Every structure is written in C-alpha cells, then in structure tokens.
UniProtKB/TrEMBL annotation:
Domain of life: Eukaryota
Signal peptide residues on this chain, from the entry's feature table: none
Coiled-coil portions: none
GO molecular function, one term: ATP binding
Sequence similarity: In the C-terminal section; belongs to the AIR carboxylase family. Class I subfamily.
The organism's taxonomic lineage, starting at the top: Eukaryota, Fungi, Dikarya, Ascomycota, Pezizomycotina
Protein name (record): Phosphoribosylaminoimidazole carboxylase
Key words of the record: ATP-binding, Decarboxylase, Lyase, Nucleotide-binding, Purine biosynthesis
GO biological process annotation, one example: 'de novo' IMP biosynthetic process
ATP-binding in keyword set: yes
Amino acid sequence: RGRKSKPLSDSKPAGQAKDAVVGVIMGSHSDMPVLQAGINILKTLNIPFETHITSAHRTPDWMSEYIHGAMPRGIQVLIAAAGGAAHLPGMAASHTAIPVIGVPVKPTIGDGTDSVLSILNMPRGVPVATVGVNNSTNAALLAARIVGLKEGQIQKALIEYADKSTAEVMEREAAMNE
Ligand code: RP5
C-alpha cells in the first residue's frame, strides 16, 4: 500500500543529492511551500539533502521503508513536516535512531496548535525536536548544528551565517539611530 510511484509533474524533487546527510520529509506535497525556507538554508550552507513525500496516513508502508533505509544510507538527521493530525515526525522517530526535527505546519483550519501538540507531546522514549509553526528555517539550522558536529565545513558555514545575521541586525540598528 502506498508504494512510491513516478513523481507527478508538479512534484519535482527540490533536492536529491546522492551524498545526502539530511532527509527532508513531508506528509503532503502541500507542505512544500512551508519547507522552502529551510531548504534554502540547507542550500546556502552547502548541506547535501533529499526531499520525499512520506505520508504517515496515506503511504504508511513507503514512510516506514524510507525511514528504515535513511540511516544505513548516511542520512544523519530527518526534518519532518506535517500539519493537523501531524503524526509523521513521531512515526519517523519511532522507526529510526537518528534525530528527528518536527516542523508543525499550519493547517487550513485553526492556528496550528493541533500540529504543534501532535508533534511536541510525544510519549517518553520517542523524542522529536519541535520547532515553531511553519518554522522550517530553524529546523534547517538545527539540522545544520547536528551535522556540523562532525563536519567542520558545515559548522564554519553555520557560524558565518550567524555572523551575517548579527551584522544585518546591527546595520538596521545603526540606520535606525542615524
Ligand atoms: C498532513 O495533512 C500533511 O502534512 C498536510 O500538512 C496536511 C494536509 O494535507 P493535504 O490534504 O493538503 O494533502 O498529512
């Protein structure tokens, strides 16, 4: 049930690096716009990543197959986005020993509290690191910090990114008081 099939023309992969160390997974293609900011960060920091739609509800067998295969293939961290009954990050964490960062996606109904609680309120023993609603930027930066522990170049890029954002704020501060 729900085996991976040929991609639709409107679901062109955002990144499928052969040497991917970060797996970006989502419950639906409709989550992709929320993930774009985080994907841009991964690209900026030169972190090889791959993207997949692995729905916990619509494609449970494919989700399980992908997550079980991720660590043996060299994926070090999973970023998992889902909205509403957001089970994907928790299911991912139950199928692997690598860190899972959950991105709660704001659903069409409500403010996203259901997504946050679905991802945050995990039973003891199955941890998921949870970022704010739609905050794929922080998910990518947290993934970079984890991967950067072993990869000096990534840690360096991350420090440069932080320095740049500090400089931007200080520039705005200076301009405000000119
Ligand atoms: C979740 O249901 C997805 O992660 C998405 O955020 C939400 C709605 O999915 P669609 O109905 O737009 O496919 O599984």
